[in-house]
Amino acid sequence: MTDPIASPIRVRFCPSPTGNPHVGLARTALFNWAFARHLGGTFVFRIEDTDASRDSQESYDTLLDVMRWLGFDWDEGPEVGGPFGPYRQSERYDVYADVARRLVDAGLAYHCYCSHVELEQRNDEARAAGRPPGYDGHCRHLTAEQVFAYQGEGRKPVVRFMVPDSTISFDDLVRGPISFASEHVPDYVLVRANGHPLYTLVNPVDDALMQITHVLRGEDLLSSTPRQLALYDALAAIGVGSGRTPRFGHLPYVMGQGNKKLSKRDPESNLLGYRDRGFLPEGLLNYLALLGWSIAEDRDIFSMEEMVAAFTIERVNPNPARFDLKKCEAINATHLRALPGGELAVRVVPYLQRAGLLGDEVTDDQRDLLTAVAPLIQERMTTLAEAVDMCGFLFVGEDDFTVDPDDAAKLLDPAGVDIVRTAHAALTAVDTWQTAPIEDALRRALIDERGLKPRNAFGPVRVAVTGRRISPPLFESLELLGKARSLARLAAAAAEVKASQ
Ligand code: GLU
Ligand code: ZN
Question: Do 374 and 401 reside in the same domain of the chain?
Fold first, then answer.
């Protein structure tokens, strides 16, 4: 299976811009990208937008946005250009019309005038007679009179590909040798009666014209490969492309909940959801790499550079892969913890901005605060968006600061409020507003003098100043919040509870 790989390597990632981009797409992009980068090949990004009823500009924009977010770079494609452009199929209709015409002229495809009703009727007859349904080749060899008569009726023909009657075999890069008897492959439509070219035509035509050497794509497309291979031969015969058929490798299915194929509609499929939650692109990609590939036994964590260095198709496993959101989160958390603190401080900014905690312009003070708090929250985070709850208390305007009502109900009861008052008094006396003196003052007042257990002593203080029971370490949080704001919040917590009692 490891024939010396023809150079130069050219692969393509060619999604259709429909709906929101999903995990399966990103996995396909990743494997193609890593393959190209490993071998010094070319990664082509092509947009298969020939289905006007399903494609949308919004999906196209989102797709590019998500590709950039994930950190993929493409050598040819939208916004980058390249020698085989345009890379949006909706801009290539004249190319497809020309190829379709040449296929018909060469006798490799033909006009079919059958109506839907006729096709259905003959399918029914085939079923009744125990034959497989599917196009029966009716219009393969129409006479000039028959064509004239159909045209006289005002029928508009589709263009059908004449699938040759031979066994089609290929050596799948992932699954090994595969063969299909093509008498089971009916002649299929390449161009609709209204002149609109279909995926069946445009995908192989562009692979041929763009000189694609390797096609790595999902297993759901395996059944279409034999008929596409037959078309490649026809394209070669009429001189479209280099005449070299690409090698195919079909990436394993991804299974979701209940051992069912992960569907685009499953919530864990939606790539935008991962970005919204603040997954790191490198964390998500690391996890997606494991859906069918492994870098080594017992090794889950790696960088994209390491993946590129190690990636070979031989290590792609044909067995279905299981999508496990918990594992995806754990891998993301590992990457997140490995970020340099300064880097984490930068990465959380868009999430704090989205939550309204930072403005478009981040001030130097805010940057310093972020850099200081980052190491305090890093170990507790799984995704970047969690920074909003974890350190929002430092960035929220005093007028907007609120205490979580549930946490307040539990911890700011009369005993808790009493603790808050004591803390307020003790902290008022602290002159050097730093973690150590803050801690000393609170321990002395609450633990030494009042004999409280640390857990009971510090919980109410934490809720009062951070708004939540879960926060970065308390004394550091107080230092970062500053004396004035800390005291104001303690005072407010005491007063508010008093007022509502
Ligand atoms: N546009 C096709 C899809 O999204 C690409 C299929 C292929 O990779 O050949 O399914
Ligand atoms: Zn027909």
Answer: no
